[in-house]
Amino acid sequence: MAMADLSQLSINQATTRAQWTLREAAEGYARAGVPGIAVWRDKLAECGVGEAARILAGEGLTVTGLCRGGMFPAADPTGLRAAIDDNRHAVDEAVAIGAQCLVLVVGGLPAGSKDIAAAREMVRDGIGELLPHARAAVMPLAIEPLHPMYAADRACVNTLAQANDLCDALGEGLGIAVDVYHVWWDPDLEREIRRAGDAARDGHKRILAFHICDWLVPTTDLLLDRGMMGDGVIDLPKIRRWVEAAGYEGLHEVEIFSAENWWKRDPDEVVRVCIERHHSCC
Amino acid sequence: MAMADLSQLSINQATTRAQWTLREAAEGYARAGVPGIAVWRDKLAECGVGEAARILAGEGLTVTGLCRGGMFPAADPTGLRAAIDDNRHAVDEAVAIGAQCLVLVVGGLPAGSKDIAAAREMVRDGIGELLPHARAAVMPLAIEPLHPMYAADRACVNTLAQANDLCDALGEGLGIAVDVYHVWWDPDLEREIRRAGDAARDGHKRILAFHICDWLVPTTDLLLDRGMMGDGVIDLPKIRRWVEAAGYEGLHEVEIFSAENWWKRDPDEVVRVCIERHHSCC
Predict the structure, then answer these.
(1) In terms of pTM, does the model score above 0.90?
(2) B124 in A contact zone (CB under 8 Å)
(3) pLDDT confidence bin for B4, thresholds 50/70/90
(4) Residue A3 lies in a domain
(5) ipTM topping 0.90
(6) What is the three-class DSSP state of B166?
(7) Is residue B2 part of a domain?
(8) Which of B120, B146, B149, B225 should be substituted to probe chain A, the one whose Cβ sees the most A Cβ atoms within 10 Å?
(9) Is residue A224 part of a domain?
(10) Do B147 and A148 touch (CB under 8 A)?
(11) What's the mean pLDDT in B244-272?
(12) What dihedral do alpha carbons B267, B96, B145, B133 form, nearest 10°?
């Protein structure tokens, strides 16, 4: 373990969400030598934004993202307005803690709707409305395409191609969070990662975050059964090569939702295994 | 219910697999006036192919498909050879019961593999090897793209675009089974259905089967929690219009895997609800 290079590692605090507060996570990751963290808004709210900013800076952590904005589709204009307002607030929080991006989980179908095309239009329009505030705050927005199994209830942007199309349409200040869990199966993955790399210009990169974990076989829960790197079937080194060939130079953020396994373990052990597996499997 | 038009309805016997044998399903569907059935090979083996053929013909049922061939990717040449042999046998069984097509669930990653591109090549090569036998037997092969959540363990063909590409590459005798559960989320769905329609020529249609059910929110199991039409978020009339605009004139096959709900009900009730919902929601 003395040989592991930790310089590219970040841990999304969802990975230890059942065990640790924001302060405990920041201290725990830093204690292990992990240089990056991604923060969740519910944990941020518990801690308070000002206190969180002090803790994160005090530990010297790079904040690879704030999770999450998004959830734009709404059943009525009031709902859409509330979503935009909440997203503006999320942008401000991301700025306050020095996050590298605000991750957008864009939202699924509004209650009662079966019109996924309309939901996708609401997402495009919602991001379009949010962008001026994000640009003024110099906070990049990172669309995270989610696996198609979340299309109904979490995100109707389900492929990198869709995310690239949105970035092309909406312009500067918008990019993509590539999470291997959501995109590993995509036959167009290599092409769309390359496309994202080719779209970078004027110092603005499109790939804003790179999230890692693994797809377990079998997967026993749609939401909370993600695997540790190396325990599943995702070819992590290959996807990493593609992302780096597309110009990505940021940290690799471990994000594991695992109700029955990693969330039940000693969090210091979880961090240790993240370090080991990032070194040996990624 | 006297008004429901049953002439386009088929029921895949997976919908009552926990309750009924092949004979019971054939009799039960026919008793309710349903003109079509799709058969599973394990149920066929229980019954015996000859006896099954007599039962199905005796009930006057249209057999909209035999489930299933496929599962091509293998860890070694012996496994691949066994898969091809088993698929040839499946073609012969499909012919024996007068099925309209043999449905192919193409298979996922071989044991120990993380190379989904290689698995996809094995699928292409395996179907290529099977096709001469299927053509000689005049048994169309229907590739069923499966939802990306099955990419690792059931099918590495996960979009209609991939299935259309395979059909373009491998030629006559090969088509597609469109199952709304697997493809409803796809941003390219309308385009790829149209493409499949445009590819039909010389009386050979590419869309060989149309499977219906619904996507429940929440979905509690990756495999066995499909919904009855109308209980979920899929816009069934829209997809049906697209498929029919692409020239599909076959039956609509209800296929519902539902361990905790429909498989626990009186199967005659299940059939009655299938009829009602096909009439009111599709």
Answers:
(1) yes
(2) no
(3) confident
(4) no
(5) yes
(6) helix
(7) no
(8) B149
(9) yes
(10) yes
(11) 98
(12) 170
